[in-house]
């Protein structure tokens, strides 16, 4: 079965073609980052308009790259939610319209399920069951995954998502959006011993997260440095490093707890923040001590992309699942 995947939930237009026999045939991505840069975040109306401009050309590009035409498609999967309603609508309308014209199946996919299954596009496929750490700009969740669609939320952020905290700290440091990679680059040159920031909610049981206080702590530290005339380049790097260390440590502590409590031996890490190099290194070290293993998507499939939607869609379409109604779901809990 050849499945076209369409992702338009936020500020990336992603399209891919996945073949259940031959794997990923082609994928293309158009990022709107430059469009939203001057606003310091995603502007929903601009996002929808840009998806409208880019989606059809990207579909043509992916089909051409795979040496196929529309009539070679067996099904279309699109992100039905969660996300920005106008942006989701572009993908949903295109998917349903194309599927109807071609007389093929169509399925709306949960964006976070796409992220969660993205490591399965790699050579070493994580087998069910596992614990998933979903860390993106909108979500920080630990989920127990018994099988496809069998999700149990173990814990989540009670305020900001980890990626959102990275983005806000980037803003404080006058770095452009999206800030995660920028803060991580600055942290590379930071001294880990200079500041120690709090590891929120690690001193109490459970696997919920909170990143809002850490963000405020970062702001206070920057203001104090500025007041004392000490906010030089090295201090900016040291603050970025202290912030990153605190986020990474907190995520590692909670992942370790979730694995121990659930008895699972595999951890799947996905979503934009899973691209963070220091997070990967720290998780690998911590998990090897537990006899557990972590699985990650390749770099470009950590952030939003069409391949994860094509893949998640293919898994569900293979079970006979279809979507009859064109109904984006901007708020849609995973479990
Ligand atoms: O999954 P994603 O592309 O979009 C959402 O569904 O939110 O995640 C984007 C988030 C942004 O907050 C971005 O700053 C963060 O992932 N991010 C990173 C890194 N790369 C992307 N955060 C920390 N370190 C990175 N290397
Ligand atoms: Zn995402």
UniProtKB/TrEMBL annotation:
- Which catalysed reactions does the entry list for this protein? L-threonylcarbamoyladenylate + adenosine(37) in tRNA = N(6)-L-threonylcarbamoyladenosine(37) in tRNA + AMP + H(+)
Q: Where in the cell is it found?
A: Cytoplasm
Q: Which EC number applies?
A: 2.3.1.234
List membrane-spanning regions: none
Q: Which UniProt keywords apply?
A: Acyltransferase, Cytoplasm, Iron, Metal-binding, Transferase, tRNA processing
Give the cofactor note: Binds 1 Fe(2+) ion per subunit.
Instruction: Write down a Pfam family by its short name.
Output: TsaD
Q: What is this protein called?
A: tRNA N6-adenosine threonylcarbamoyltransferase
């Amino acid at each position: 079965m050849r499945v076209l995947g369409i992702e338009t939930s936020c500020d990336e237009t992603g399209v891919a073609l996945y073949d259940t026999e031959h794997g990923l045939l082609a994928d293309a991505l158009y990022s709107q980052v430059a469009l939203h840069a001057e606003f310091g975040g995603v502007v929903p109306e601009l996002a929808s308009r840009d998806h409208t401009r880019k989606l059809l050309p990207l579909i043509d590009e992916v089909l051409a790259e795979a040496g196929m035409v529309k009539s070679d498609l067996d099904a279309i999967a699109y992100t039905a939610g969660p996300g920005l309603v106008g942006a989701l609508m572009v993908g949903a309308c295109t998917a349903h319209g194309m599927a109807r014209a071609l007389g093929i199946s169509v399925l709306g996919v949960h964006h976070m399920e796409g992220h969660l299954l993205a490591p399965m596009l790699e050579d070493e496929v994580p087998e069910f069951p596992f614990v998933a750490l979903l860390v993106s700009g909108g979500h920080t969740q630990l989920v127990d995954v018994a099988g496809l669609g069998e999700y149990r939320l173990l814990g989540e952020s009670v305020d900001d998502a980890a990626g959102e905290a990275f983005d806000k700290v980037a803003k404080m440091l006058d770095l452009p959006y999206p800030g995660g990679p920028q803060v991580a680059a600055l942290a590379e040159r930071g001294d880990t011993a200079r500041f120690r920031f709090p590891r929120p909610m690690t001193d109490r049981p459970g696997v919920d997260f909170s990143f809002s206080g850490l963000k405020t702590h970062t702001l206070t530290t920057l203001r104090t440095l500025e007041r004392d005339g000490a906010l030089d380049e090295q201090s900016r790097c040291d603050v970025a490093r202290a912030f990153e260390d605190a986020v990474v440590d907190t995520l590692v502590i909670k992942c370790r707890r979730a694995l121990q409590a659930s008895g699972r031996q595999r951890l799947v890490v996905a979503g934009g923040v899973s691209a963070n190099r220091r997070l990967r290194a720290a998780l690998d070290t911590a998990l090897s001590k537990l006899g557990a293993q972590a699985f990650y998507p390749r770099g470009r499939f950590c952030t939003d992309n069409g391949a994860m939607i094509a893949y998640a869609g293919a898994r569900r379409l293979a079970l006979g699942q279809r979507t009859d109604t064109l109904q984006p779901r901007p708020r849609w809990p995973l479990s």
